[in-house]
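Input sequence (121 aa), recorded before submission:
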Amino acid sequence: QVQLMESGGGLVEPGDSLSLSCAGAGSVAKTGVMAWYRQAPGTQREMIASISRGGITNYTESVKGRFTVSRDNAKNMMSLQMNSLKPEDTAVYYCYARVLDSLKFTWDDYWGQGTQVVVSS
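Predicted structure, token format:
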């Protein structure tokens, strides 16, 4: 069974930095594209950053220049470095990965459980 485990959320003040991590566990043979999504209260979940297995990144406009996504393929891990945080970055952040399951030999979509980020003074 595949699991994505997130860590690193918390309460910070505007202008602060925070780093999130996502680690694949269980029957992970290989990870394809990975991404970070977030969902603020009353809004739809939106993708904010993605990274291909080869390291190609994409960001939504609102986080460009402030957030950096990276990954370690050998460890099936992805990170999100968030700088210059703003109150509007407050949301639950979710990790997503396309994973090759070593038991089922199929590629499937997986999500982390979510981690809360609150930016407030």
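Checked by second reader. The CA atoms of residues 39 and 45 lie 4 Å apart.
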